[in-house]
Design brief:
The chain is mainly β. It is 10% helix and 35% strand. The strands form four sheets. Strands 1, 2, 3, 4, 5, 6, 7, 8 and 9 form a nine-stranded mixed beta sheet that branches. Strands 10, 11, 12, 13, 14, 15 and 16 form a seven-stranded mixed beta sheet that branches. Strands 17, 19, 20, 23, 26, 27 and 29 form a seven-stranded antiparallel beta sheet that branches.
Amino acid sequence: MKTNNFLKNITLAILTLTVISCVKSDEYDVPSVSGTEPDVTVNSSIEAVKNAWNQNYGSNNEQIYTFPTEINTYLTAYVVSTDLAGNFYKSLVIQDAVENASHGIEILINKTSLFESFEVGRKVYLKLDGLSVSYSDGTNNDPTDANPGQYTMGIEDGGVISNIPSSIYLDHILRSIEIGTIIPSEITVMEFSQNRINTFVKIDGIQFDISQSGKTYAGESSDQFDGFRTLLSCGDLVTAKLETSTFSDFKSYVIPEGQGNISAILTKDFRSDFFVLKINDPTDVDFSNMDRCDPDRLDCGNNAVGGSEVLFNENFDTKTTSQLTADGWINTNVNGGNEKFELRKSSGNKFMQASAYNSHENPMEVWLVTPAIDLSNTINEELTFKTRAGYYQGDALSVFVSTDFTGDVLAATWILVDADLVDGPSSGYGGTFMSSGSINLSCLEGEVFVAFRYLGADGSITTTFQIDHVRITGNLP
């Protein structure tokens, strides 16, 4: 009996050590997979899921579509998000291919630490039976218009999409033994579009805007729930937003100063108002090139100047398009398209307006340039103007000044102006025009031109921008 007890104790000790050795380490290693591939028949796709919602919306105007049960509908996809660093929470983002993905979608799951079983690149089979899908674009949730939106999957609960319960999510998400290498689609900011949403993309030649220098990803006192940081594309000076959760492990990391490339999931913000990029962790940002591409920015000092002499004043109220041309305004589409700034009127007020919405132009780049304004005989010159935006889908307006413009906007030297520009709302228009603030021009001499550049794209950045009350003042010496 003693011998048997001794053997039992030895066996128990060995089993205990074996169990302890199998406990996951701090590295959260993904357990190995053995066995066979799930025995299912793939008969659907992410694109088909979207189309099912679109058709239901068109026929019944329903905001949620639920797939029928007990018909065994499956799609296959690859995981591109991870919650390991805390920037994604209780969700998986999947796309339809490891490379050149054409569709992606987010799945809400009431489960944390999903990375332990569903790491980036893991192939999955999604059983659609009983799952629901919704769509949101921040405005009227109409997939037939040009306003990009995102689709989300989960369980319908009281007319809204909720997370798939932890008790049944493995009935719907089947883990393949295959792990693919995700190759991001290389695009530009101007190529942000509907079908790119919830796919893994890579953007080259980009950096954080100089105004973001020294900031953390999401650790500033003003960051609530998420931090938004402005990215600047070097080639065309278009901006984009990086969104980082204030619950992420790297929220307090200082953003890098250089330029390079960023790989991220293209999605939209919480309310689906505008495009954002979301990284899995900071290794997705390679800004190791310290040769930044900052554009020339006007720097005549930040002090408010102004004066009693009005050198230029245009509120557009008494003008026609032909009169503006006769006054010396230049209104041009540099890509040869038909769209330009248009003279519009609302509630008795006239203004200039540009929008890429339904323009069929991608990109759409139009410039509105003032006549020459002579600063030779004054000091303390100041520029002010007002802007209003509608159906905001991203920054599309930039303001420049030049002293060598002769009629060709592409041949002139333009200096970027740091002005306060409106950035919303996503639905309808802002109530009143917002002032640009005081822009000091006192370091410029001779004839000066002010240019408003609209750079957008139909189906992508389509924000409507309106410009009014362009005014330059100064003082006699």
